[in-house]
Amino acid sequence: MPPPADIVKVAIEWPGAYPKLMEIDQKKPLSAIIKEVCDGWSLANHEYFALQHADSSNFYITEKNRNEIKNGTILRLTTSPAQNAQQLHERIQSSSMDAKLEALKDLASLSRDVTFAQEFINLDGISLLTQMVESGTERYQKLQKIMKPCFGDMLSFTLTAFVELMDHGIVSWDTFSVAFIKKIASFVNKSAMDISILQRSLAILESMVLNSHDLYQKVAQEITIGQLIPHLQGTDQEIQTYTIAVINALFLKAPDERRQEMANILAQKQLRSIILTHVIRAQRAINNEMAHQLYVLQVLTFNLLEDRMMTKMDPQDQAQRDIIFELRRIAFDAESEPNNSSGSMEKRKSMYTRDYKKLGFINHVNPAMDFTQTPPGMLALDNMLYFAKHHQDAYIRIVLENSSREDKHECPFGRSSIELTKMLCEILKVGELPSETCNDFHPMFFTHDRSFEEFFCICIQLLNKTWKEMRATSEDFNKVMQVVKEQVMRALTTKPSSLDQFKCKLQNLSYTEILKIRQSERMNQEDFQSRPILELKEKIQPEILELIKQQRLNRLVEGTCFRKLNSRRRQDKFWYCRLSPNHKVLHYGDLEESPQGEVPHDSLQDKLPVADIKAVVTGKDCPHMKEKGALKQNKEVLELAFSILYDSNCQLNFIAPDKHEYCIWTDGLNALLGKDMMSELTRNDLDTLLSMEIKLRLLDLENIQIPDAPPPIPKEPSNYDFVYDCN
């Protein structure tokens, strides 16, 4: 007979004694269980004791998390969080340097536990740490030369404990003094500083900027871009990552009027070329966190274009109209006569109207009206002027080539530029805030100071080339734009390392090639919609769905590494989850770092029987997505969140690393529960596999017309004399 669900079998350790095997009744108060354990070892004052996990986490067991205890868990009897916090609070104020160092080391480790953190904070521990940072460096200034390693470790552990305590979100960031900010900033500004101290200091500055508007202003006064740049020129990728994170935080929180000014400073300090040389083209792989920070910097840089993108042109503004005149002058300078003032005003207007038509504007009389739509607003005109000035030969060739055609196949440069700018803004999501989980940065955008304008110049030439290949007319304008968008998107997915490489990728993606790709990626709808084919599809669909189901379950058996996201990404913890080969149990557990390959079942300490799973919920229905906080409201995170509900109020919360893994896991879990697999990935896989299977079965019927209805059954013969009886 199986044991009751509320009884958990565990082992409990106590220093200097043999471990005890116990059955814990989860219905009993935790204090009663601790008293029972203490009585077994004849320990008085049970209220001074607590239970904690004996693994590397050392987290305390509380009434809130006691349901996470599973059969076979190893626990440890230890001093209570309140007692531990009190002792450490006294020990870190010891006059002995060795005792102080050991206490700070223990504090840095224990502060990861929210239960201990709450007790230590209640003793005003945060204030004590900040005072130690502010005054400690002066106090031990004379000892630095003779005790430099000890001093460095002490400061490192102090800052680590501070970071861990603040990470729980118990204390507001607004409570810190200017003296503390100056001290942290001084650690970043020093050229020779211990790596661990520099890491923690950069992390603290980033959190200050992101969590408090007042602190942003104070940090911005203490830290300059010039002081951060040297940290990017080193070889430690983690320091580089923290440095770019601080720059991104300052960029993100800067007032609108300050952002362009900050961008100009970044350009003056050659941040882009330094990142390209020392990060992107360094002889080492870029890890996920660095990729995320580069993506954020890319998004924030492109978002500077939003102001121009959303600015309508004022037809009465002479300075803006002069830009259009300049476009006309560059294109038609050779054939125009600027010094000929004898012509009447009517003739000049007529000439301008003719030239504006050649330039491809919709409104020939007043082309300024073409730029009143937002997006792309004035950004389109900026791009056109950049192309005309910096790629003058290509600009003149495109304009004159199309203005001289009389066969209705001319590509309107003005209209094309406006629509192309709008399309590129959509592709790069100009104006949207960066995602919390995306790592999708493009190295080529770090190779030029005017990368968006150069991107436009390459794409407008592609558009003109594709227009000619399609022999398009004005009626085909939208079709051409769709093809160009597909060409650009396909080229971007290859992550070209430079703009020249991007150009080469586009050269290989001609209109003919796009047609071939489209042909290979889709079924011929006309051939596959007849009734016999639909019936065949219906017949083989269950087999295909079973195949997809098995693939999903096999992937769950392999397992996936998930991230425990919090308010500061780089402090993320990892955990792994996988299905047992017999599909009966989910094994999961925490990891110190992202694993290389599969994680064995026996190294995952927690189990969840599949039979105990009540439901799988996604998105906003997940318990961890109902919590408050900026991260929880992020749309991208919502789309990757799912939870397993089991027992009465228990849940296992997930945030998938990407959309593909999200689909794999939600499909696999639904398959385990006997429900339909409803993900977009399943639909795509089903369409692809059905298409392949149908084509394979119809190979022998090539060039044979399949009728919509089966052939008529012939009449019965008048006699059966032709039948031969073998018996």
TrEMBL record:
Which keywords, in A-to-Z order, does the entry hold?
Answer: Apoptosis, Cytoplasm, Membrane, Phagocytosis, Phosphoprotein, SH3-binding
Residue ranges of every copy of the ELMO domain listed in the record: 319-492
Q: Where are the transmembrane segments?
A: none
Q: Where in the cell is it found?
A: Cytoplasm; Membrane
Q: Which GO terms describe its molecular function?
A: guanyl-nucleotide exchange factor activity; SH3 domain binding
Give the lineage: Eukaryota, Metazoa, Chordata, Craniata, Vertebrata
Alphabetical GO CC annotations of the entry are: cytoplasm; guanyl-nucleotide exchange factor complex; plasma membrane
Q: What is this protein called?
A: Engulfment and cell motility 1
Q: Please give the organism.
A: Canis lupus dingo (dingo)
Q: What does this protein do?
A: Involved in cytoskeletal rearrangements required for phagocytosis of apoptotic cells and cell motility. Acts in association with DOCK1 and CRK. Was initially proposed to be required in complex with DOCK1 to activate Rac Rho small GTPases. May enhance the guanine nucleotide exchange factor (GEF) activity of DOCK1.
Q: Which Gene3D superfamilies match?
A: 6.10.250.810, Leucine-rich Repeat Variant, Pleckstrin-homology domain (PH domain)/Phosphotyrosine-binding domain (PTB), SH3 Domains
| Major place of residence | cytoplasm
**What biological process terms from GO does the record include?**
actin filament organization; apoptotic process; cell motility; phagocytosis, engulfment; Rac protein signal transduction
> Which residues, by range, are in coiled-coil regions?
none
